[in-house]
Design brief:
Layout lengths: L8 H22 L3 H18 L1 H4 L33 H37 L1 H16 L2 H11 L4 H9 L4 H15 L2 H8 L4 H37 L10 H10 L2 H4 L2 H29 L8
Length: 304
């Protein structure tokens, strides 16, 4: 009598099959949200422009020595968005600035969510004095104005993109920490957590194998929502002159327009394009975040 051995790769193939089925089910539910699909299409367009920026506008778009127009030139057929105070093509600058604004927003949101997830999971799992201390620190960050803390950090640190990412990331995590801790407390009461502990599962095993997978949908939805806030925060810091002056970003363009007196002089073409780009990307991420949140938690009843 022979026993047939199950190939070692079969469990892995089954796991990937479940993941593909779950992703397909998620997409079927997501595309029923018209606002979420619109936001996703808008994001895809901006990401495509950011990736293709070197081919569309060239890497010398920020060069002031060979500017194609005259300072503060009005929009025309050759310069659809007009020119900035150095005569540079504003359309090219807006397209190039998408690279920095999207990258900084994404990295800052990832850092913020990572900090909030770690604190939320550990505070919900260990409880006791550790949870008390962590939640009091979280409450302190919640009551403090986020922008003021970010400005303080950006002021004392060197002016660079890394500074902006750190300043935004370490000041916007408390909301994620509170949400994740609440979800962790709910997961910790389920029977399989008690069975895992009874079978000898330690703290790391319970948190990584049982708690974290159950809070990841919440983390994913929170990430998409925080990215829009991070992009707005980056634009605000750059507008206040706390960004890296050597790179082009949407907030940096607004700061240049302010220094050039575009507001008082009525040079609207200097202000409108980067402002609309910031608003569209922030709105697109918000629409995507609400759609993701509705798919992962249908009880929220988010409208479509």
């Amino acid at each position: 009598m022979t026993t047939e051995k199950i190939p070692a790769a079969r469990p892995r193939a089954l796991a990937w099959q479940r993941r593909r089925a779950s992703a397909a089910r998620f997409w079927r539910q997501y595309r029923t949200h018209r606002a979420g699909v619109l936001g996703l299409a808008t994001l895809a367009l901006f990401v495509l422009l950011a990736v293709a920026a070197p081919l569309l506008v060239g890497s010398d778009v920020a060069d002031v020595t060979d500017a194609p127009g005259s300072p503060l030139e009005r929009p025309s057929g050759e310069l659809p968005f007009g020119a900035d105070r150095f005569g540079r093509n504003l359309l090219g600058l807006v397209i190039w600035g998408a690279r920095v604004s999207l990258l900084v927003g994404l990295l800052a949101a990832v850092l913020s969510v990572a900090i909030g997830t770690v604190i939320g999971v550990t505070a919900g799992h260990f409880r006791g004095w550790y949870a008390t201390v962590m939640m009091r620190i979280t409450d302190w960050f919640l009551v403090m104005p986020t922008l003021v803390l970010a400005i303080a950090l950006a002021t004392v640190m060197s002016r660079s993109l890394l500074t902006i990412v750190v300043a935004i990331g370490v000041t916007t995590w408390p909301t994620t920490a509170r949400l994740v801790r609440a979800q962790t407390l709910a997961v910790e009461t389920r029977p399989y957590i008690e069975r895992a502990r009874a079978l000898g599962g330690g703290h790391w095993h319970v948190m990584s194998r049982h708690v974290l997978p159950n809070v990841m949908p919440l983390v994913l939805a929170q990430t998409t929502l925080i990215i829009s806030s991070a992009i707005l925060a980056e634009a605000t810091l750059a507008f206040l002159g706390l960004g890296d002056p050597t790179v082009v970003s949407w907030g940096g363009l607004l700061q240049d327009a302010r220094e050039a007196g575009a507001v008082s002089a009525g040079h609207w073409w200097y202000l409108v394009p980067p402002g609309i780009a910031i608003a569209l990307v922030a709105l697109a991420f918000t629409l995507c975040g609400r759609a993701v949140e509705s798919v992962l938690n249908p009880r929220l009843g988010v409208s479509r």
